[in-house]
Every structure is written in structure tokens, then in C-alpha cells.
Specification:
heterodimer, A: about 230 residues, mainly alpha, 10 helices, B: about 280 residues, alpha/beta, 4-stranded antiparallel sheet, disordered N terminus
């Protein structure tokens, strides 16, 4: 191997290289995680589908609120409207809780499956942080795509349903921007918030599995060959 | 957000810098011995039973040596191997790599050491299945912070050296066992380590492929002066080893020099046969 360098240390590494290694490569972690998500697409889709469902439900409720306000039903009977909202709020919270256990268990499974790979990476010099990073990126990728798809589908279903019931002219009355004219949340605001909620939820759910993976001892991880 | 909390990158950078600063000059002092162990003991807890895997191993390995650690399974050779590789800590005693006591190193420094000073080869190859041959070889360089084009060049160079340049874009499952092990050898050499630790490198290979892998390791040992320490019970290894360390019941039973090896290896086979333990004879 011919490597032209300046001042060499004992390992054939220049000081420049040692300095450079300190910038831990986010882009590489991202590339590897992306690879994992796409190669195990089936598994990723199952995990993402729990996020998809929760966010779809959340976005459907948000769209329903907008539609109810647009038709004026909300003002007709404010008490009933508030009661319905409270009921849906709890359903959304429950949905998110179920969703997060789903993500935790899916990722824990993926940690167990990758015991040896994680051990190998640690042998090759990966820091605990790199492993944590990989799992968090993976979770946020699945969270992002699941949430985006969920928010779109949830909103569409509710928009079409409200359109059929109340007439599609209703769509013109919905505030599509981030904020409505009265300063309340608009469609885009709800959309962004729903997607964010999904992404944050998946990242938070991934913390336990990611830490579990990072805490693996390289030797233990390699011993699981039986 | 959660991510920021878990990765205090500023602090981490400092720790890595410290590790490099501390280890780099230490590793530069070239001593005759690349590995020294002093009275290493290891006790595992299996359930409630204490297993004494190592009972005082003292060992000196010179730079550039080709060492085989032999012994029946359960003799403690894998444990010793893990100790030398910094994968496990001894219950008592010390392990020195380039005169640095591994017990004194924190997680960052150990990662630094594993990345640059030691190359690992496993019985089950342990390539990352989602990556191509070239990506597997360059992975340790990513951890070492080598820039991308240099990674590619060095990776291809290494693949060429092990005779797999034209298969750089293949995933592990598209390669035969022998080819996978060649990729693993190239990966072990990625950061120009001082030591290659090979744990039963021929254990999952057929006779001919195993022989080729052993020859490749010997060539690399001579070309690059890299110290090769191989835990094995493959007797083919004896031929190329400078020294053979026989481990039995967690202790060194015998250390044989190259000059005596051939005769004694034959005797060992005989002895083992008489004891009724069948060594795996090629």
C-alpha cells in the first residue's frame, strides 16, 4: 500500500487525520440508516404503519375541526362540539401511546436481530454514539415517511367525507394556510403539527432501543452465535 | 430535542481529542513487545456458578510475530483473545498493547484503539450484510475519519490485495465463504493496524479455502509486518506460525518456537489422539 503523507505516527495516521476523525460523520450514519430502512423495507413499513395510523387519525380529527368550523356546526352547538373534541383528544392520545409501544418493540426486535452487526461495528471502532445515532436516524426516517403519508391520507379521507355530507363547496371555506383569518390554526398548521408529532414520537420511542444497542458489550454481542 | 441531549457533540469532540492526544504519543514508542499480558484472570458468572476461564496467563508477543493460540474449546482461548482485543476486561491482572495498560483506557480510548491498532477477523466473517464488499472494507476508515476519496482508493487497493477487486460491488450474500473472509481480512487491514486478531478464521471454511486464507494471512504478516494473533484449533496454522501457544484449562500449557514446531505438532496430534481427543486434522 502506498500512501503519501507527511508526519507519520505509529499507525501511519497523520495528526490531520486524527483531528478529522473527531467530526463524527452524520452523513455516513444517515447513509447507513437509510440503507437499513430501505433494505428491510417490509419491516420498516410495518413499523411505519403504526405511525401512519396514529397520525392519520390525528390529522382526520384536525380536519374535522376545520370542517365543522367551516360549516358553522361548531357555533350552532358549542357544548356538544367541545364534548366531541374532548372525546377525540383522548382517542388521539391513546392512539399515540399504542403507536409508541409498537415502535419500541419493533426497534428492540431490530436491535436483537442486529446483535452481531452492532458488536462488529464496535470492534471496528464505532463509538456508542454512532450506534445511537444510527437507530435514531432510522426511527426518524420511518417516523417522517409514516407521518407524511398518514397526514395526507387522514386529511383526504375527512375532506372527502365532509364534502359528501356537506357539499364540496365547503372546501372553499376551509382556511388552508398555517393560520386561519381569525388567528386559529389553519390546515397547513395542523398538517405540519401532525407530522412533527409523529416524527418526535418515533424518535422518543427509539431512545430506549438505541441505548440498549449502544450499551451492548462488543464481546457479548459477538458471542451470540448460538 | 432528544437528539441534542443524547449527543453532546462538543463534549464528545473534546473526549475524542483527549483520547487521541493521550494515546498517540504512547503508541509511538515502539517497544519490542506489541502485546503483553501479566497474570490475567477472568471469572465469569454463569447463573450462580463461577467459571474460571483464565487462571493467570502471562504472555509476551513481539512485533511482527505470527502467533497461534491453540487449545480445545472451553480452554479459555476465546476469552484470552477478547482480553487482548480490549473487548473484555480481566477480573485480575493486566493487558498491555504497545505498553498501554488497557484497564486505564476509557470507552473513547478503547474505541480509538480498536479502530486503529487492532484489526479483527471472525470465524463467521461478520461482514455487514447491507453493505457491499467495498463499503465493508471502508467502514473502519469512516470511523477513523478518512475522507471519502481516500477511503475509496485505499479500499480498492486492499480488495485488490486480497484478490477481490472485481467484486467490490457485491453484497456478502453474493460471495462465497472464502471470499467473505478475504473481504473481512481487507477490512481488518483498513486502518493499517499493528495487530490482527483472528478468532478461528478458518473455522467455517473448507480445507482448500482455509489453506488459502492462512497463506494470505502469512503473506500479509511478512509484507506489512503486522502481528497476527490467531485463536484456532486448525492444525494447518502451525506450519506458518512463529510460535504456538497451547492453552489448557485457562492456563498456558506450553509455548513452542518455530524451530521445534513441526516435530512437536506431530507429537501433539499423536498425544491428543491417545488421550482420545480428536483434534481437527486436515
Amino acid at each position: 500500500m502506498t500512501r503519501a503523507r507527511g508526519s507519520m505516527t505509529a499507525f501511519g495516521l497523520t495528526r490531520e487525520e486524527i483531528r478529522r476523525q473527531i467530526q463524527l460523520p452524520w452523513s455516513e450514519a444517515f447513509r447507513i440508516s437509510w440503507r437499513y430502512v430501505t433494505i428491510r423495507l417490509g419491516r420498516s413499513l410495518v413499523t411505519a404503519s403504526t405511525i401512519f395510523l396514529s397520525v392519520a387519525f390525528l390529522m382526520a380529527v384536525c380536519t374535522m375541526i376545520l370542517a365543522a368550523k367551516a360549516t358553522g356546526h361548531a357555533e350552532e352547538d358549542p357544548q356538544a362540539f367541545a364534548a366531541t373534541l374532548a372525546r377525540y383528544k383522548w382517542s388521539v392520545i391513546l392512539g399515540f401511546m399504542i403507536c409508541s409501544t409498537g415502535i419500541v418493540s419493533a426497534l428492540l426486535m431490530s436491535v436483537t436481530e442486529r446483535f452481531r452487526e452492532i458488536g462488529t461495528m464496535k470492534c471496528l471502532g464505532a463509538l456508542d454514539n454512532f450506534i445511537v445515532r444510527m437507530f435514531l436516524i432510522e426511527a426518524s426516517l420511518m417516523g417522517l415517511f409514516g407521518s407524511l403519508a398518514g397526514a395526507i391520507v387522514g386529511a383526504l379521507i375527512m375532506l372527502v367525507w365532509a364534502g359528501i355530507r356537506e357539499g364540496f363547496s365547503l372546501w372553499a371555506k376551509i382556511p388552508w394556510g398555517v393560520k386561519s383569518a381569525t388567528g386559529d390554526w389553519g390546515f397547513l398548521g395542523y398538517f405540519i403539527a401532525s407530522v412533527l408529532a409523529g416524527v418526535i414520537l418515533s424518535i422518543v420511542s427509539a431512545i430506549i432501543p438505541a441505548n440498549r444497542a449502544a450499551k451492548l458489550q462488543a464481546a457479548d454481542a459477538l458471542r451470540t452465535e448460538i | 430535542m432528544a437528539m441534542e441531549q443524547m449527543m453532546p457533540s462538543g463534549e464528545m469532540q473534546e473526549r475524542m481529542q483527549e483520547a487521541a492526544k493521550k494515546l498517540e504519543p504512547m503508541m509511538e514508542q515502539v517497544s519490542e513487545f506489541v502485546v503483553r499480558t501479566r497474570d490475567v484472570h477472568k471469572i465469569y458468572l454463569m447463573g450462580k456458578v463461577e467459571v474460571h476461564a483464565l487462571r493467570g496467563v502471562t504472555l509476551d508477543i513481539k512485533r511482527g510475530e505470527y502467533i497461534s493460540i491453540m487449545g480445545p474449546s472451553g480452554s479459555g482461548k476465546s476469552t484470552l483473545f477478547n482480553m487482548i482485543g480490549g473487548l473484555d476486561k480481566p477480573t485480575a491482572g493486566s493487558v498491555y498493547i504497545n505498553e498501554v495498560d488497557l484497564a486505564q483506557l476509557d470507552a473513547y480510548e478503547l474505541a480509538w484503539l480498536r479502530c486503529r491498532t487492532i484489526g479483527y477477523i471472525f470465524q463467521t466473517f461478520n461482514l455487514i450484510p447491507v453493505m457491499t464488499a467495498l463499503e465493508n472494507v471502508t467502514l473502519p476508515m469512516i470511523f477513523a475519519g478518512v475522507p471519502e476519496d481516500e477511503r475509496r482508493d485505499r479500499g480498492m487497493e486492499l480488495l485488490r490485495r486480497v484478490g477481490l477487486a472485481e467484486r467490490w460491488n457485491h453484497k456478502p450474500f453474493e460471495l462465497s465463504g472464502g471470499q467473505q473472509q478475504r473481504v473481512a481480512i481487507a477490512r481488518a487491514l483498513a486502518n493499517d493496524p499493528a495487530i490482527i486478531l483472528a478468532d478461528e478464521p478458518t473455522g467455517n471454511l473448507d480445507l482448500k479455502t482455509g489453506k488459502e486464507i492462512i497463506e494470505l494471512l502469512k503473506e500479509l504478516n511478512q509484507e506489512k509486518g503486522v502481528t497476527i494473533i490467531s485463536a484456532t484449533h486448525d492444525l494447518k496454522m502451525i506450519d506458518v506460525s512463529d510460535r504456538v501457544i497451547w492453552i489448557r484449562d485457562g492456563q498456558i500449557a506450553r509455548i513452542e518456537d518455530r524451530s521445534k514446531i513441526r516435530v512437536e505438532a506431530a507429537l501433539e496430534v499423536e498425544e491428543a489422539l491417545m488421550e482420545g481427543e480428536l483434534p481437527d486434522i486436515p
